Amino acid sequence: MSEVVADFVVIGAGPAGMAAACEARSHGLSVVLLDEQAAIGGQIYRGVETAPSDRLEVLGKDYAVGRDLTSAFCSSGARHVGGATVWNVSTDGTVDYVTNGSSGKAVGKYVLIASGAMERPFPIRGWTLPGVMGAGAAQILLKGAGALPSGPVVLAGCGPLLYLLAWQYLRAGASIRALVDTTDRSAHLHAARYVTGALLGWRDLAKGIKLLAALRRHRVPVYSGCTDLAVEGESRVEGLSFRHGGKLVQVPASLLLLHQGVVPNTQISWSTGSAHRWNAEQLCWQPVTDVWGRLGETSLYVAGDSRAIVGAQASAVQGRLAALAIAARLGAVTDLDRRAAPLQRDFRRHTSIRPFLDSLYRPRDENRIPQDGGVLVCRCEEVTAAQIRRYVELGCQGPNQTKAFGRCGMGPCQGRFCGLTVTELIAGTRGVPPDEVGYYRIRPPIKPVTLGELTR
Amino acid sequence: MTTEALFSIPHTAVVKTVTIIIDGKSLTVPDGISVAAALLAGGVRDFRSTVVGKAPRAPYCMMGVCFECLIEIDGVPARQSCLVPVRDGMRIRRQDGAADLVTANLGDVA
Ligand SMILES: Cc1cc2nc3c(=O)[nH]c(=O)nc-3n(C[C@H](O)[C@H](O)[C@H](O)COP(=O)(O)OP(=O)(O)OC[C@H]3O[C@@H](n4cnc5c(N)ncnc54)[C@H](O)[C@@H]3O)c2cc1C
Ligand code: FES
């Protein structure tokens, strides 16, 4: 077992973690950064350092620009431990991880959790069939391996990442059989309230318009305002059926990519016993922190999309702000407020479009809280929506108790892929807000560790 | 088991290859990619079957959160194949059920 001690330990090599490490180094702090991926970059800049030029071209400028941050990080003097899966974080700053079959410990005066986001689950009938994946997952295959769909692909759902992937696929010459858009038309009206904020983020808006124009130019069939999605097939996906303009439509598919936004990956913050609250705009849990990202009175801070979805640029700024606050606590920065002010302005600018996006791409209730009782909610233990509703009738009050009723949330993913659905399903059935229902109690190890790894 | 692959990796994206063995068959794949990516591009559609209903499953998230890509790698069961890079000579076996090792690995999750 190896042990390192540092002023600042960072978990996650995405924009938040890399920017925080650079900021901390510029104030002379010693920094160790852990990430379970072998290379730095996080989700948005995955593989950016090694991507060949044609892949950079396909993925676009917003991807290639990640090299600025990765190279700043590489020359910052921070120590990077790749392939390091963090399975325990203690509130005193001790971080346990495994790498290459052996275990390690990093002890920080302060720790930043920058574990990013994950795609929101999309629980519909048949979503567990082989051939159904997240659109973000398919983008990981493109960024990490240069892999493209072999045949025509069907994309379904809503949100910027779905359209971005469609655009990247078109640039790479892949063929899209259909884009089945679930954006609620009435959402346009709701979102209109936030237009002033959105205009401040006009660059993002312009990007969105460009993506949709590209889809039209390539004559990709776009079905908008779709409902009643169901995946067809027995042992693998054969098609997608949905309702469009009052008609039932079926499209054949051997590869179906679903997406309805990203949500904070809160597994680490929950496991530390920290308080979380339900974010009603983003429909997800987020850790309760102070303005700098600190969790209660602990040595732990959170920044980036694992704190609430803010996007890559704002994540990086938030990482810097947390690092500044920590540097100030350690006495390395004396004029915190003066240094933080411009960063806080940047943060507001980068997040001004969020309320608009959250409102426009709010995933439909039916795609988060399955009405169809046969839909598998807990993929690991194969628990259906009907079963969970039945548990509530029998007196089950919250996600933790579903475990006792039917092992829901007790499989290897530890509730990562059913937790949000179970919270909302129980809240809806009981007729109370999600905050009252709560979440699973998450305990370390938050990633599988074997006895062999612990003793090496 | 292996059929027409859902994903393909253009030759231009491949600098160096390695050979892995999946259920006894050799597969030549680009170096540096994840086991899950290699298998998806190699025509493997079902990675495992579930503990309860014996239903076929394959990777869903590719980033370590869904645990659908669990597979035996070099004798170690239930590895997250989307997080493990391929290595020359790696031996991979698909898993049926496999409840025992998953719980053994995780300890107390309740
Ligand atoms: C699949 C996916 C694809 C995306 N693609 C794009 C895109 O193309 N463009 C865009 O604008 N936005 C994209 N996003 C949104 C994007 O994630 C963020 O806006 C941005 O990357 C957030 O930065 P971050 O630093 O907060 O986290 P991330 O970039 O997500 O980085 C978090 C890092 O933490 C690591 N980590 C998590 N848990 C552990 C653990 N237990 N142990 C060790 N390491 C751990 C992860 O491996 C990851 O590298 C994507 C999101 C997802 C989920
Ligand atoms: S594909 Fe989800 S954990 Fe590997």
UniProtKB/TrEMBL annotation, chain A:
CDD domains per UniProt: GlpA-like_Fer2_BFD-like
Signal sequence bounds: none
Alphabetized SUPFAM superfamilies for the sequence: FAD/NAD(P)-binding domain
Coiled-coil residues: none
Protein name: NADPH-dependent 2,4-dienoyl-CoA reductase/sulfur reductase-like enzyme
Pfam families (UniProt xref): Pyr_redox_2, SO_alpha_A3
PANTHER family given in the database record: ANAEROBIC GLYCEROL-3-PHOSPHATE DEHYDROGENASE SUBUNIT B
Keyword terms of this UniProt record: Oxidoreductase
Record-annotated SoxA A3 domain positions: 377-454
Residue stretches making up the FAD/NAD(P)-binding domain: 7-309
UniProt xrefs under Gene3D superfamilies: BFD-like [2Fe-2S]-binding domain, FAD/NAD(P)-binding domain
Keyword tRNA-binding among UniProt keywords: no
TrEMBL record, chain B:
Gene3D superfamilies, A to Z: 2Fe-2S iron-sulphur cluster binding domain, sarcosine oxidase, alpha subunit, N-terminal domain (3.10.20.440)
InterPro entries: 2Fe-2S-bd_N (IPR042204), 2Fe-2S_ferredoxin-like_sf (IPR036010)
Pfam families membership: Fer2_4
UniProt keyword annotations, A-Z: Oxidoreductase
The organism's place on the tree of life at top rank: Bacteria
Protein name per UniProt: Molibdopterin-dependent oxidoreductase YjgC
